[in-house]
Amino acid sequence: MKGLKRIGVIGALGISIILSGCSMFDGGSKPSNEKSTLKIMYYDERSFYSQLGMVYSALHPDVDITVVTNQQTGPYDPEMDMEAQFDTFIKEEQPDIIMLSADQLTRYAEDGSLLELDTMTEEKDYDKETLIPGLLDYMRELGGGKIYGLSPNFYSQAIFYNKDLFTKYGIPLPEDKMSWDQLFELAQRFPTDGAKDKRVYGLSLGYNSELYQLGSLIGSSQNLSMFNATSKQVTIDTPAWKNVFEVAMKGLKSGALYTEDPNGMSSGSTQTSYEDYLLRDPFISGKLAMKFESAYIMTQIKEAQKNAKDKAIQNWDIVTAPVDPQSPDTSSNMSLGQIFAINAKSVNQEAAKEFIRYITSDDYARVTSKLQDGTFSVRTNYLKDEENHNFKAFYSLKPVKSSIYKDFDKLPQNFFAKFTGIAQEELKAAFDGKKPLAEALASAQVKGQQAMAEEQAKVKEQPEQGSGTAAVEAETPAT
To answer: What is the pTM of this model?
Structure first.
């Protein structure tokens, strides 16, 4: 149903643009009578046209598009080498446009398998000044100094806050670029008495209500990692991680944090109407001072204001996600959507550039800004609302690649799942007071290193496989 709704919205918007004679982007090439083709990698054909391709195809009738997907259709196989399968897919299908993760972009850029896009972004009509801050620098970081891919949208989290609650209790409003310590201290200034479904809470961090999860969230913002994937060393037993988990434990034990119910409803409530459904979130019903959340909650707030006006929050705003005081201008809580790159072997490189130009254009951003699906366009012109909320909180911090999952693809296949279980168990013991935190971290490191060695041994026992990217590189002409 959601997909059908998106198709309807995009389709209607696209038709209105075409009928008005509006050009989709100023920097694009004019339609030609000469036919060109594009093979584009995406999740599936239906999703591609509803999210990206419908308006593009209407405005570019001279381009024939074929959508290819590498999505697994059978049951999940934990022993399957997903990256090797991905590489084989690219080698066999040779799509013009490749959809990549951040790690995959780096790997393929190193192999020389992608077309450089720096020249395109420097074109006057591309107007890179309206892109979100740090986007191009981030893409250069992934590409080893050059831009090899771009994304049309990004996902970001921020701190939503209830102005009326802060006024009621005489507490200073939150600010952009707070540290995690400052955020917890602010939350703890609200009262902690009363029944769970009646009282006021200082802060909600979603489902990050367990020590390992919350510590990982805080550590990610401080550019910490629990392991070195290259040297295969576990690195959780460090002073930095100990400090992170101490901060997380203090916050969790303070009584100021609201814990999300896994069933999506406040504890003790009985959902009897649509109004109850809308107000199940304590932030929307005015019982929560701050919430760490994505933009998706804004749609829920609007619905509640329309259908439960007297009970829904009215006076709210946003500040940035907490930051590392040592790097206050960056955030790992901001991530890009699909990254699109051009296959260096493509014989349709100009058409491929035109497609990427289109999906990162200002006019495309204008159309998709109406969708309100929890993501944002990478163009800042449409990052605002009628109430003038602080939308800069979503994009003023520059994106950085989280070190928590750095070089994740270099780890033995089953190690991360095993290590997560080990760390969760040890940190729960520390949280429950069964052992000191320092002892729990030391134990997690020893057990984690043992798991790393065991999984490494399994890798060495397997027959050596050729690299798909190496095969692509061998066939790719120098650029």
So the answer is: 0.82
What are 179-235's pLDDT values in tens digits? 999 999 999 999 998 887 789 999 999 887 899 999 999 998 888 999 988 899 999
Last residue of one domain, picked from the residues 293, 313, 331: 331
Is residue 226 domain-resident? no
> Are residues 16 and 122 both part of a single domain?
yes
**Is 147 inside any structural domain?**
yes
Q: Please, how many CA atoms are within 13 Å of residue 379, restricted to the half-sphere of its CB?
A: 20
The whole-number pLDDT of residue 478 equals: 38
Domain that residue 449 falls in: 403-464
**Closest to 63 in 3D by CA, of 32, 35, 94:** 35
Strands 257-258 and 149-150: unpaired
Residues 118 and 24 both lie in one domain: yes
Specify the CATH number for the domain of residue 326. 3.40.190.10
Q: Which residue has the higher pLDDT, 80 or 312?
A: 312
Cα separations in angstroms, 98 against 42, 121, 313: 8, 18, 43
With tokens 């992608």, the residue in question is: 114
Pair 317, 390: CB distance under 8 Å: yes
pLDDT confidence of 263, banded at 50, 70, 90?
Answer: low
The rounded distance, in Å, linking the Cα atoms of 346 and 351 is: 10
